[in-house]
Amino acid sequence: MKKMLITGIVSAGIILGGTTIVGASMNGNNEVIMKDEAMKSEEAVKTKDVASKYFLSVEKAKEIALSEQDGHIDSIDLENEDGYSYYEVEIENRDADYEMYIEAFTGEVLKVDSDDNDNHEENKALENIISVEEAKEIAIDKFSGKVMKIELDEDDNRYEYDIELKTKDGKVEMTIDAVTEDILELEIED
Question: Which DSSP category does 56 fall into?
Fold first, then answer.
């Protein structure tokens, strides 16, 4: 009986002692992990502070970009590629879309890519079309009624007005050539 009691006490002591040692070692590990995480956070803050002291501001990058090219800025992103930081600025104006790459520390314009807007021919074609009001008049002269919907559409390099009229006899849908004023399509529903 004494042996069982002593064995039980020794076993309990070993279990409690082992639990205490494991608990203490886990606390030590948690503290180390927390310290490591805190050090990483502090390093990140320091790195960020250092970077913000040297990086150009977004406003300065915009100013540089707009001094190089007229237009409005669609987007500006700070990029980091292979340890090299730069601003990618997208500018749009009537003539073209531009992607400008500006060195993030010095403000040097590294590269400008442009994509011409082929709007010159489109704008010229739009100068020759009839107005919305003229298209409405053509539709109402042909079919008395009220214009419910009118939309300018480009189809196969030809501008057209798609018009929907409500008449006393029903609904009329028509397509009018926006240059020649010809009725290209006509659908009458009762």
Answer: P
